[in-house]
TrEMBL record:
Region: Disordered, residue numbers: 341-361
A Gene Ontology molecular function term of the record: histone modifying activity
Name of the protein: FYR C-terminal domain-containing protein
Keywords: Nucleus
A cellular component term, taken from the record's GO annotations: nucleus
Compartments, record wording: Nucleus
Length: 372
């Protein structure tokens, strides 16, 4: 399995080096020096980077840095971990979405897709968005660097929580500090302006198309090790936190929800598939107190790639499978549409050419209104 590895909104960047000193492991976990992971919280618009460094004879140092996700480049994972039991459900949902999308796209040979996907020739702010994993609209080559800088500054302005850094002697205590620090910042922002806004320019669907844990995986009857995976999935987070908070009652309720949501260890070292990876590193046998995963639970019950609970795929394979399924379905629908329209074309004649794309004359946000 190649790094970086992605599971939902969680990424593993470096496995680090195993230190066999007693304070660098216990019976259930190993804390490698140089280990690095990250987690993207779409609820608060945060990107947290977790690292472990050598703390000498007193044990490792656990560190977490928070940055606004709006100004942070999202990791480009090489391997995607997904739940193998949900592959069929996830594919069925994708097919349903793609079918409705393709039916819209092939009502005519040249359709709304052409108008919306055609590069816009206007250099107006309405034609551009900040680049990011969830944005398909890329800036035109003629867009000035000055304008892009203005957009970036605007994005920085939107997130008022800013960057912060905490460290401690245990991963759980550090995440408790993360939770409290972010909540304190939220309260202070609200006191100063009377408004608190959470900003994330990444759609919840950005990772849904790469990994697959659906709500069925996290139902009430799921075991503790499965429930422990919920914390990496933003779609299982608090549902009732407003993006813009304008009242003290909303602030109080939201802070309480955020305290529960953020006060969870997200280094990932308590997760079985991460432990599975670490046990493949050299030096594990020298950790005298550590008990191997296979000795703690049966292989069939463990939530690992080796047990078959998870499926590990190269990210390129995931994209290829998605595109192949989508292309085949769209081709099938188009062939069906073409056959159905043969008789109609014989009586009504050939449809007129599409003409110039509307986006060469109109801002993108007005194209839909004009077509309607």
């Amino acid at each position: 399995i190649n790094l970086p590895i992605q599971y939902e909104d969680f990424f593993i960047h470096h496995l680090g080096k195993i230190d066999c000193r007693p304070l660098y492991h216990n019976t259930n976990q190993i804390w490698p020096v140089g280990y690095e992971s990250s987690w993207h919280d779409r609820i608060t618009g945060s990107f947290f980077t977790c690292t472990i460094t050598d703390g000498g004879e007193f044990g490792p140092m656990f560190k977490v840095r928070r940055c606004p996700c709006t100004v942070t480049s999202m990791p480009d994972a090489d391997t995607v971990i997904s739940n193998i039991n949900d592959e069929k459900i996830d594919n069925d949902q994708k097919l349903g979405f793609e079918k409705s999308y393709c039916e819209l796209g092939f009502d005519e040979d040249e359709s709304i897709q052409m108008h919306l996907h055609d590069p816009c020739e206007l250099c107006s702010p309405s034609c551009y968005t900040l680049q990011g994993p969830g944005n398909n609209c890329q800036p035109d080559g003629s867009l000035s660097s000055e304008y892009m800088e203005q957009l970036q500054q605007h994005s920085c302005y939107m997130d008022e929580i800013g960057e912060f850094f905490v460290e401690g002697r245990s991963s759980s205590s550090v995440w408790s500090m993360v939770s409290q620090t972010l909540i304190d910042a939220c309260i202070e922002i609200f006191k100063q302006s009377g408004v608190l806004q959470f900003c994330c320019n990444h759609n919840l669907g950005d990772t849904r198309e790469l990994s697959s844990p659906l709500p069925e995986l996290f139902n009430a009857g799921a075991g503790e090790s499965v429930q422990n995976l919920r914390k990496f999935c933003s779609s299982t987070g608090p549902k009732h936190i407003p993006q813009v908070i304008k009242s003290e009652s909303d602030l109080e309720t939201s802070c309480e929800e955020l305290r529960k949501w953020l006060n969870q260890d997200r280094f990932g070292l308590d997760v079985e598939f991460v432990q599975e990876l670490l046990e493949q590193s050299s030096g594990v046998q020298s950790c005298s107190d550590y008990v191997l995963l296979a000795e703690r639970c049966s292989p069939a019950a463990s939530k690992t790639v080796g047990s078959g609970f998870f499926l590990a795929k190269r990210k390129a394979e995931v994209h290829c499978e998605t595109e192949s399924t989508s292309d085949e379905l769209c081709r099938s629908l188009k062939r069906s549409r073409n056959l159905d329209s043969v008789v109609e074309n014989e009586t009504k004649g050939k449809a007129p050419p599409p003409g110039r794309p509307l986006s060469t004359k109109l801002p993108l946000e007005l194209v839909g209104d004009v077509l309607q």
